[in-house]
């Protein structure tokens, strides 16, 4: 699906937009196209009884601007989130950005690069202030089978500086599959289901204290997010 999107659908859409003189942002148009493509791909997987996706609270992902924070238990969490988020600026690592199957989609959608540090943070804030949404995995990588990694504070800093809400998204996979370090051949006996639970928005301003800077608030926000996800992990849900 990503090859079809990157090599055919997105270039044709870009040409059509230029021919029509469309003033709509090309990156946003590409993100909407990727969203529709991932929905089609997941419907195809469901029809083949390979994977299912269920979503609760998904309407919260249509608000703008927000920082979406999610755990990352499996290999296809990003396509799952893309299928439920009509617009989202993802932060991707170098492996994604240079992957021959993904590179053209990443470039067309204008996804941010995690390796760019402070430049990436400034760019993310500008996008949020322009009314766009941002998607962040605060663990920085896939969740290991034994439990969550420590959350990084980048999402909290970005949300504080942009003045927008954080929306937590818990992803569960039952039975667990496509985990970090797991072989593709380790196929579960039953069709796995990705359950996406979208939580209530968190207002970063609520964590600010008089006389303190953003760093202290970012630590409190990150600790609250870690606790939010850990409680669900402790119940054996994630």
Can you give a write-up of this model?
- The longest helix has 22 residues, at 26-47.
- The model is unreliable at 3-9 (pLDDT under 50).
- The protein has one domain: Glycerol-3-phosphate (1)-acyltransferase (3-Layer(aba) Sandwich), CATH 3.40.1130.
- A 7-stranded mixed sheet has the order 1-7-6-2-5-3-4, with helices on both faces.
- It is an alpha/beta fold and 238 residues long.
- It has 8 helices and 7 strands.
- The protein has helices at residues 2-20, 26-47, 77-84, 94-98, 103-109, 117-129, 154-162, 214-234; strands at 52-56, 66-70, 89-92, 112-113, 134-136, 165-174, 193-198.
- Helices cover 44% and strands 15% of the residues.
Task: Describe the strand arrangement of the main beta sheet, using strand numbers.
Answer: 1-7-6-2-5-3-4
Question: What is the H-and-E element order?
Answer: HHEEHEHHEHEHEEH
What class would the helix/strand composition place it in? alpha/beta
CATH class, anyone? Alpha Beta
- Looking at the structure, the CATH topology is Glycerol-3-phosphate (1)-acyltransferase
Question: What is the count of distinct domains?
Answer: 1
Number of helices: 8
Mean pLDDT: 85
For the record, what is the CATH homologous superfamily label?
Glycerol-3-phosphate (1)-acyltransferase
Q: List low-pLDDT spans.
A: 3-9
CA(first)-CA(last) distance: 27 Å
Radius of gyration: 18 Å
User: Main sheet, how many strands, which sense, barrel?
Assistant: 7 strands, mixed
Q: How many strand segments?
A: 7
Annotated CATH architecture: 3-Layer(aba) Sandwich
The coarse overall form would be: globular
Estimate the strand proportion.
Answer: 5-15%
Helix fraction bin: 40-55%
């Amino acid at each position: 699906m990503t090859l079809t999107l990157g090599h055919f659908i997105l270039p044709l859409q870009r040409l059509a937009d230029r021919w029509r003189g469309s003033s709509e942002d090309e990156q946003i148009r590409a993100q909407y196209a990727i969203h529709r493509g991932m929905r089609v791909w997941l419907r195809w997987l469901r029809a083949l009884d390979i994977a299912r996706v269920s979503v609760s609270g998904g309407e919260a992902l249509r608000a703008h601007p927000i920082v979406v924070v999610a755990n990352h238990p499996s290999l296809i969490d990003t396509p799952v989130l893309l299928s439920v988020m009509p617009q989202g600026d993802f932060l991707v690592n170098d492996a994604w950005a240079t992957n021959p199957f993904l590179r053209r989609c990443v470039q067309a959608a204008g996804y941010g690069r995690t390796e760019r540090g402070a430049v990436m943070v400034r760019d993310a804030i500008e996008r949020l202030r322009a009314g766009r949404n941002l998607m962040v995995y605060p663990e920085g990588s896939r969740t290991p089978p034994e439990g969550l990694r420590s959350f990084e504070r980048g999402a909290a800093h970005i949300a504080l500086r942009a003045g927008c809400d954080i929306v937590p998204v818990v992803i569960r996979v039952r039975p667990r599959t496509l985990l970090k370090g797991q072989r593709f051949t380790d196929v579960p006996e039953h069709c796995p289901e990705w359950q996406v639970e979208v939580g209530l928005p968190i207002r970063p301003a609520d964590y600010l204290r008089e006389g303190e800077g953003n760093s202290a608030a970012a630590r409190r926000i990150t600790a609250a997010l870690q606790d939010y996800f850990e409680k669900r992990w402790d119940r054996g849900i994630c």
